[in-house]
Each structure stands twice: as structure tokens, then as C-alpha cells.
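[Meeting: bench + compute handoff]

Bench side (C.D.) handed over the final construct sequence. Compute side (W.E.) agreed to return the predicted structure before the next meeting so the bench team could plan truncations. Sequence as handed over:
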Amino acid sequence: MLALGVAAQAAGTLVVSAPALLIPYLHAQGTPLALAGVLAAAPTFGMVLTLIAWGAVTDRVGERVVIAGGLVLTTLAVVGAWAAAGDPVLLGLAFLLGGMTSASTNAASGRVVVGWFPKERRGLAMGIRQMSQPLGVTLAAVTVPQLAEAHGIRASLVAPIVLCAVLAVLCAVGIVDPPRPARSAVPTTVTDNPYRTDGFLWRVHAVSVLLVVPQFTLSTYGLVWLVGLGWSTPAAGLLVGASQFVGAVGRILVGLWSDRARSRVGPLRVVAVSAAAVMGVLALVDATHLAAAAVFLVVATSVTVADNGLAYTSVAEAAGPFWSGRALGAQNTGQFIAASAVGPGIGALVGALGFAAAFGIVAVLPLAALPLIPRADRSHD
């Protein structure tokens, strides 16, 4: 279940992150940076439109149908992008549809992990599941820009089409929905709307919105930053991919740490402080033109992706088995609303002030998240 969840989410992430890695190619073909940023943001905006709906469907019909069916629809959307290459309007619409359909894996794959793993091993399991996003970005980073530069946009979309189609079949065959207690067998506190109980879920959602901006700033513009420092596109793509892979390993370690500490919010507070620090360091690196830019980018990428698994697991545990699909959908919706703004917003900020100032401004957001992090965990286990 864990392997299929990771693979399904990685395939969806590949689809969502591919447009951002086409920015250098599109810009070289004469597309303004702001417009390229809009195309890059289209999939994440599409996810915003459907995440809660996919979560509600998952709560009602189960994980297997949502993941496998969503991947079929994602395959068709990317085929549409392949056919629309060359027309910015149609291409943007296809990217939007790809985000809307790939949101199914975000909403349902986390529930598979929460349902099949006990609480004392769930942080590690969810950390492994959260590897899917940096792994998807890694795969995109080492294939999409190079293939686009050598053979055009269509060549860069073949891998997402094939991967999503294959995984749709594997998930339909291999995923088994986790057991769920009958509503009549549990207290009403488990089945009641958790958003009306207290502000725990709202606070975690808000924290995640603030912490996702540094993450998507680096995944969207890390390649552009390195190219601006004199790196070749293939070399920069490989480094971005390597940094995402290191970040994936970091998520596992943070998840294990949260199991050992028996807390999700305590480690989340440490990650927030660290994210502010590394973004500040990147601003200094750009301003002073330090030679070790690659090292600092790898470190910053690893730190800024570390919060996702902690917050995701915390939301699932607090929401309980009857609300976790919708709660996880809401969690990702808030994150992708912020992520959708990163493409055009950070692009405009970099164009006006440069990367150093943009990184410095982004560094403030994790600090703003600190007072919002709850002091204690909440769980129905």
C-alpha cells in the first residue's frame, strides 16, 4: 500500500511540476517570464479547485477507486497537453486539467498510509509517503528541461503520460482500502465535524500555507536561479533533482523523529525556524555571489520540504477516519493556493528586485508561522 501510494503521488507530482521546469525553454522561445510563470502555476491552481472534492469522494467511496480513476483522467489530460503544444491557451488549459485530476492522488494516498499504519509507525510511514513529491520533482528535473531543450515540449511529456497510465493499472489491481470502523461503533466525537471542535486544524492549515511558499519558490525558480548564475540547463536540472532527492530522505528522517518524540507539532516548530534561516542564507549567497551556491540550494531545498509530512500526518490524526479525506483535501488546497501564487508572484518579485530580495522576503514567512503552530498534538488514536 505504501509503495503504490508513493508511486501514484510521484506520478501526479511529475505532472504538476513539469510546467515549472519548462520555464527556461518557454522563456528562450520568447515567452515572457510572467506568462511562463502563469503556465507553471496552472496545475497547482487546478489542484486547488478539486482537492476538497476528491477528499470528500475518498471519504465516501474509498481510496482505490479515487487513485486509479484519477490517474486515468490525469493521463488523458497530459495527452491533451501533448496535443496542444505550441498553443499557449490550450496548453495552459491542459495543464489546469492535469492539476485538477492529479489532485486525486494527493487526497487519497495519504489516507491509505494513515489507515494501514499504527500511530507509533505512522510518522515514518508518512515520511516515506511524502517522499513522493520530491521524487516526482526529481524525475521531472532530470527529464523535462533536457528533453524540451533537445526535442521540444512534446518529448518532455511522454514520460508523465506513460507513468500515469501504468500506475493507474497497478493501483486498480494492487490497492486495498484500509479498514474503517462503523459509525455506530465509535463515539460521536470521532464522527463529528472536527473543524467545529477547536482551532487545531485551522492553525495547522495556516502554518502549512506559510511554509509552502519557500518550498515552491525553490522548486519553481531554483533552476532559473542557477542558470542565471552561469550554470548550464542540464547541470542545473540535475542539481535541482539531486536536491529534491536529498529532501525526500530528509522527510523520512523527520517522520522518524516525530515518532520517537511522540509529537508532530514540536518538530514542526524546529523546521519552521530552520526554513527561515536557510532562505536568509540563500539571499546572502545571491547578494554576495558565493561560489558554493549549489551546496546551499541543496540544504535549503531539504529543509523547506521537511514540514509537509509532519503537518499532513497531524491533520489526518486530528481529523479522524471519517473526516481525514476532506481535511487532507483542505490541507493541500491551502498549500496549493499559496503555491499557485508563487509562479507569477515570485517571478514578478524577482523581475523587480532580484533573487536576493525575493529570498529575503520569503524568509519572513516561516517566522510568521511560528506563533500559529499548536502547542500540543491532537489525535483520535
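W.E. noted at the follow-up: The mean pLDDT is 85. C.D. will use this when planning the next construct.
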